[in-house]
Amino acid sequence: MNIDFNDGKWLNEPASWQADATGLTITTDEKTDFWRETHYGFTRDSGHFLAFPTTESFTAQIRIQGEFRTLYDQAGLMVRLDESRWVKTGVEFTDDEAFLSTVITDGRSDWSVSQPFKELEDFRIRVTVANGALRIQASRDGRRWPLLRLAPFPAAGHYEVGPAACTPERSGLMVRFSEFSIGPAITTDLHDLS
After folding, report:
1. Euclidean distance between the first and final Cα of the chain, in Å?
2. d(CA 22, CA 13)
3. Are the beta carbons of 98 and 92 closer than 8 angstroms?
4. Do strands 133-139 and 122-130 pair parallel, antiparallel, or not at all (unpaired)?
5. Secondary structure element (H or E) that encloses residue 180, with its range
6. Band of residue 82 on the pLDDT scale cut at 50, 70, 90
7. What is the pLDDT of residue 23?
C-alpha cells in the first residue's frame, strides 16, 4: 500500500520539507547524522527520519532521488526500534563516489558499502524484516532487486520505518522520496531478483 507522507511522525524534523500526493522533498539541516560509538567514539541521533508504524514483519520500499556530492551525504530507508537499535540503508557518498550503504546498529553501529550499480541519483531501496532477520535489496528500475545485505535484527512486535537523510559534513542536500509502500513481508527466495 502506498503511504501518504503527511501521516508520518518526524524524528528531527528538517527546517525545510514539503509533502504532497506524489512524494516528499526535504533539505537537510547542518551536521545531521545517525551513528553509535564504533570507530569514531561518538553517538549521534540527529538525522532526519519520518517514521511510520509497522507490525512484526513487513516489506517497505521507496524511490530516492538526489545529487549526492559531499562526504557522507546520505538518504534512504530507516528501520528503528529505539535510539540504540536501528538500521539505515540507501546511498552514501564516500571516497568521492556514491555507494549503497548500510549501517546496522544494535548498541553499536557497523557500516558496509557496495556498488552493484553506480547510477545512484535515482534508485530504489527495499527492506524486509521478518523472524529476526533483515533483508535489504536495491534496484535501479524497480524491477530487478539484487541483494544488498542479509543480517540479524532484533525481533519485535512492531517497528518504525520510513525515509531518512543526513549530511554530517554540511547542510542543504535536497532529496526527493516517492513510491513509498509498506506491505506484508516478501517471502521470495534470496536469489529471486524480482
Report:
1. 18
2. 20
3. yes
4. antiparallel
5. strand 174-183
6. very high
7. 96
What span, in angstroms and rounded, lies between the C-alpha atoms of 131 and 48?
A: 27
Q: State the CATH class of domain 5-183.
A: mainly beta
Residue 193 gets the label, from left (phi > 0), alpha (psi -120 to 50) or beta, of alpha
E strand map for 54-173: 58-66, 74-82, 85-94, 97-106, 108-109, 112-114, 122-130, 133-139, 147-152, 160-166
Grid cell listed for 32: 545531521
What is the phi/psi pair of residue 68, to 5°? -95, 110
Q: Which three cell numbers stand for residue 45?
A: 541521533
108-155 pLDDT, tens per residue? 999 999 998 888 999 999 999 999 999 999 999 999 999 999 999 999
Query: 5 φ, ψ to 5°?
Result: -60, -25
R_g over Cα of the chain: 15
Bridge partners (DSSP) of residue 94 are 97
Q: Say what the pLDDT of residue 95 is.
A: 94
